[in-house]
């Protein structure tokens, strides 16, 4: 039975989950949630996800939410398929966890705020806070300087193999490069750019891009 | 060789890491950082955490930063002994622990952190607390705690009827929050209150708060 993924193909967090399922060759069915119509805040949806957010997965009887918990679950469940996505031993796993936390706490908020102010609010007909967006951009420059240094020492964030830590960044960077028009933050940094070219050319990510109609 | 933690006991994120070590009864050495003197932005610490933040962990050759990666490492390394923080023998329970670890990280933390930083930290740095920031985040925190209240009416702890790393991660910021004028957000929600009273009665929590007080 295919895993049901409740969400939208444009939502960054849904993309994080779909990218992982595609990497791992796990069959899934995307059940579209109409975010514009507020479907995710209605009682029927809140039963699935009490915070009113996407994505949620249903795998038979088992329901999970929080995209970073979902991807960890599938990597653990199918550890024999692509064993290196969470590292091959305790220390490698710790490095993957470390960079997953960096994505969640040092990177994601900045991207999210930038995209909210520059893309989402204007789309809704409201003015974005350009000063806030600029401040995020400046902070993101400093964060990406750390990434540049890190990626001068190894090919991927957690070491020399592609892991969940890299995968977790794909949706946010795509938004940065496209709708937010901030691609220079990536392309101006030799190692970060090389890493982005590599991870965004993976067949699973390209498949998702096709699914999303980009 | 003993695990080293670079940080300060009053730092919330350092406390998150040390609480986990206390819970697992793992020996460690706390290497103090002159936080208010900006030592975490100096080369010696930047070499351990390039983002210039505390805590950092050293275990033999391994250096790690990000408190939740540190707790995950400690819980995994010592999973066969002491409190079962990550339910490693049950894939579904482990997944539910991970869900509530993420909820703390993505929904609870962003709402409670600004309140604590404004109320507790700003005065320490000689600044006035920003009431607008506090008010806006109290609104967010109320909504999150409503979900917690509903959850904790059906399970004893967040991930299920077992204490886990997901509950522990709430320690440091909630500890400070309960000293603010808005502790009623917890105390007015009977299941959240009962949960907080339970988890804050654990020996590891007491050790964490004693270390904070001795600073």
TrEMBL record, chain A:
Domain of life: Eukaryota
Catalytic activity: RX + glutathione = an S-substituted glutathione + a halide anion + H(+)
Keyword presence, Transferase: yes
Presence of keyword Glycoprotein: no
Domain GST C-terminal: 89-214
GO terms for cellular component: cytosol
SUPFAM superfamilies per the UniProt record, alphabetical: GST C-terminal domain-like, Thioredoxin-like
Domain GST N-terminal: 1-82
Subcellular location, principal: cytoplasm
Gene3D superfamilies (alphabetical): 1.20.1050.10, Glutaredoxin (3.40.30.10)
Localization terms from the record: Cytoplasm, Cytosol
Pfam family, any one: GST_N
Gene Ontology molecular function: glutathione binding; glutathione transferase activity
GO terms under biological process: glutathione metabolic process; toxin catabolic process
InterPro entries to which the protein is assigned, alphabetical: Glutathione-S-Trfase_C-like (IPR010987), Glutathione-S-Trfase_C_sf (IPR036282), Glutathione_S-Trfase (IPR040079), Glutathione_S-Trfase_N (IPR004045), GST_C (IPR004046), GST_Phi_C (IPR034347), Thioredoxin-like_sf (IPR036249)
E.C. number: 2.5.1.18
Family: Belongs to the GST superfamily. Phi family.
Name this polypeptide is given: glutathione transferase
Organism: Castanea mollissima
